[in-house]
Amino acid sequence: MIGVLGFLGLLLGRKYLPFRLVLGLALFWWALLVAVHSPLFPQPNGAGEVLGGGLVTWLALAVLTVLVSGYRMALAGLRRRARLRVQEVGLPAPGAFAPAELDRYARHIMLREIGGAGQKRLKQARVLVIGAGGLGSPALLYLAASGVGVIGVIDPDVVENSNLQRQVIHTDSRIGTPKAHSAVAAMQALNPFIEARAYVRRLDAATAELIGEYDLILDGSDNFDTRYLVNRLAVAAGKPLISAAITQWEGQISLYDPARGGPCFECVFPNRPAPGMVPSCAEAGVAAPLPGVIGAMMAMEAVKYLTDAGEPLRGRLMIYDALYAETRVIGAKPRADCPACAAAD
After folding, report:
1. Are strands 250-256 and 316-321 parallel, antiparallel or unpaired?
2. Buried (b) or exposed (e) across 164-203, using 16+ Cβ within 10 A?
3. What residues contact residue 183 under an 8 Å CB cut-off, 6+ apart?
4. pLDDT in tens, 15-34
5. Does 273 have pLDDT greater than 90?
6. How confident is the model at residue 134 (pLDDT cuts 50, 70, 90)?
7. 129, 152 in Cβ contact below 8 A?
8. Quick check: 305 and 317 in contact, CB under 8 A?
9. Bigger pLDDT: 127 or 273?
10. Tell me: the pLDDT tens digits for 99-120?
11. What one-character-per-residue DSSP string does 181-242 give?
12. Are 154 and 203 in contact (CB under 8 A)?
């Protein structure tokens, strides 16, 4: 028993004594225990009975200690070699995936329709989202989670308390913060491997050059002036546009892509509704999960478009009625007399 207590004392004392001294005392103590139980002394003897154990026990302890120490040394050597290998290889080349990214996107890469090639296209893609509100919030989060390489968000407003009922990218602690900055903070916290850009401004003709810097545009704005403007700018730049809208219990979404044979937003909605005919969410209300549903659909359509997976909503308008759990899809065609896309041809 005392033999075991001696080793325990040395184990506790290693925090305060030099390692070599502790190691030397441990070897001395083990040699003493083996000696008093060895044939060098008459057996049994009083010292052996006081110290406890036996010759076989202390020899087995030595063998076990050597095996454990050897294993730890070998493991440490492998780790050193791995670190040296990483230093030799260096960081991943631009456009390549880090090991953590491959693990993060594994469920995407397993999908036959996306795979490694599709995930690489997502990493190389640049998507601009108009509005960081009800629709933009879930769309931005899922674009970031999906690994879209560059995500821009443009919004002139600040986070308000009333936004938090449905704009899930923002938090109570960020009330008063520009929505674009709040959204960027959330995306970077979710996925540090993407680049997120904030534009605290209103999209207008003076800032139209932003459209040309991105591969795909998502419009989650809440007013018709912005929707028609975004459509004209996307048509002029030849960029595909995923546009969605919600009110109360209903939402709609489509991919407007006249450069590839589909209609534009103005083909489907040639006339703006009269003032007051289509109330905003602030005027008519909206069910909290509805923008989450439609915003997630926007991100899904974006992923499909960027990876060329499945059948996009080009030339089709999907209408979702949450109150009665109904979904309808209406076909849409380009109009030869469309003032937006026909003039651009």
Report:
1. antiparallel
2. eebbbbbeeebeebbbbbbbbbbbeeebeebebbbbeeeb
3. 132, 136, 137, 140, 153, 155, 169, 170, 196, 198
4. 666 767 666 766 765 676 66
5. no
6. very high
7. yes
8. no
9. 127
10. 899 999 999 999 999 999 999 9
11. HHHHHHHHHH-TTSEEEEE-S---GGGTHHHHT-SEEEE--SSHHHHHHHHHHHHHHT--EE
12. yes
Rounded Cα distance, 191 and 198, in Å: 16
Structure tokens at 71: 């294993």
pLDDT at 89: 44
Which residue's structure tokens are 């109009």? 335
Q: What is the pLDDT of residue 204?
A: 81
Q: What phi and psi values does residue 116 have, to the nearest 5 degrees?
A: -65, -40
pLDDT of residue 86: 45
Write down all domains in the chain, each with its CATH number in brackets: 2-89 (no CATH), 125-331 (3.40.50.720)
**pLDDT average, residue stretch 124-142:** 97
- Hey, what amino acid is at 90? G
Residues in the chain: 345
Structure tokens that stand for 44 in this block: 């049994």
Q: Which pair of structure tokens corresponds to residue 156? A: 């002139």
Q: Cis before residue 263, ω within 30 degrees of 0?
A: no
Reduce the DSSP state of residue 126 to 3 states and report it.
strand
Sheet (strand 216-219) strand order: 195-199, 150-154, 126-130, 216-219, 241-247, 250-256, 316-321, 326-331
CA distance 236 to 217: 13
Residue 204, φ and ψ in degrees, nearest 5: -145, -175
Cα gap 285→326, rounded to integer Å? 20
Answer whether 116's CB lies under 8 Å from 95's CB: no
